[in-house]
């Protein structure tokens, strides 16, 4: 049983003579085989009941991931309202937006609620028990992060003996083998290994690739009050990166009249995306007393990649002639180191029970990359950051990466330190939450310089800020809660994309504010309903089409309503449903014509529904609908890409006579109708949705 420090066991109104006690929560206590979830493991809410958390939290459990044969982050997150792809179509990795706001790839993806892992390669799902999304501002616990939300990846633990093996093939020749093996060694040690290897084939022309995953989770009970947890995971992916499409000329604001075939690759098979990531995390939980516990955590995430990014431009002629612009990079390195110390305590002051958490965290981030430079024909010097070659929109040909003359570097160092204090004061049916965080943020950015040249002085800035949060929860019964919250946060201004004039520059931090009110109810045993209204105010950053500079140039407001219903509707029907209405608007801008516009790539409506019916104990039949409404291609709203509705279907049957728990055969189809659609927009780029994906999975437990 894992010790969860953020949860308190004493009920409101307990007798003052009996001191409250911190509870021990089993993190795998959610209902087995269910689409629902009881507990949350993200932020200061670790171990809390989902119904008691005064923010919108979506938990995608392992059973839903299995039913959908999920292989990547977007496969999991598409089940939650407000999620859309941005800029890329997902063939290499996923840029994800929530509520129209990008999820920051370096800070907003967390391993076991703590370590910021770098989402620039497919983060492994194979070793995850669940994926959680804490929507909105998460600054109290996580420091600098955009108000899109925190995506928390919770690893599987060695809570039972398991030896499970899985094979998957798809209609294009993609295939993988996976193993999940683990168990207890005596009473005090647990080990679990997850591994996967396979060929990546998403159905795109001139595409090839492979992917490998290896992960180990260990826990050791040193004494009855002290436990150690260690997680190590490694993923490697080497694939073709298909070219992105830019907006057509006329101020870069037009969309092609016809969506190209999803199988088209406007680049070449040898334009590669080769990335590896290694993440490790260690945690010690010490039960100091019945009323207090201490957590110490330290971890490191390292990601490295070589990338031949390309985009098709100026392809609007009658014969489809255009140019392919190639941006080569190599030795891109990202490193996050994170340390946390946290003390949790439960105590009474008269009739009020307090659950107090005090902690401190430091995150050190480093990134650097060598961006290729080509020779300028006029001077013979390596001054061009990209090169163009002829390419056709109608009949694309294979394009080989041209040789690079030189490389430039632009190192970045960030230190984000913080102290936080939060209290949950319970009195009868009321809970008052109050918290504050002190943040100290330092950034040192070195301007780009040629290899071998003198290194210029770094540009430095430092920010100190106190940010509060407050919330009130009313719980008329254990199965119903009504809440309201106000949270302030800090976010980095963003990093300029590779295809901008100020590529890789990091913009200054900014303050965000969030208001949310909602109701959560356990309708009956097994199903939870969440309904919330929210408003987020933040600075807006975008690429100015006039000078192609990525900049902070105003403030935007995002407000809307979200609803979720998850869990079991009777003994044989599982449902995971979500929907969101979003009203987003640029309220202030240095460009007057942007005021009143919709921020780019922000859908007004999103919704998803996946259900599985089990007419027999060993047979499951599932189907899903996923909807994203139209989105602006840029902040001036020069054009919009159409919305889309995708269908999915699944069927699985377990033969109990084979293996310890039987052999399960499963067939899944995503984009069932092979629909052509724009899957992503933003940053003057368009992503074409992948073609139909049909997968056959065989899983056996020995």
Describe what you observe in this structure.
- The protein is mainly β and 702 residues long.
- Helices cover 2% and strands 57% of the residues.
- β20 and β21 (382-384) form a beta hairpin.
- The longest helix is centred in the first third of the chain and has 6 residues, at 62-67.
- The two termini are 25 Å apart.
Helical fraction equals: under 10%
Query: What oligomeric state is this?
Result: single chain
Helix vs. strand class: mainly beta
Residue share in β-strands: over 45%
Helix count, per DSSP?
Answer: 3
> Alpha-carbon distance between the termini?
25 Å
Return residue spans where pLDDT drops below 50 for at least 5 consecutive residues: 1-17
- What summary fits the major beta sheet? 22 strands, antiparallel, barrel
Mean pLDDT: 88
Give the overall silhouette. globular
- Rg result: 25 Å
> How many runs of DSSP E, i.e. beta strands?
41
In summary, what is this structure?
The chain has 702 residues and is mostly beta strands. The chain is 2% helix and 57% strand.
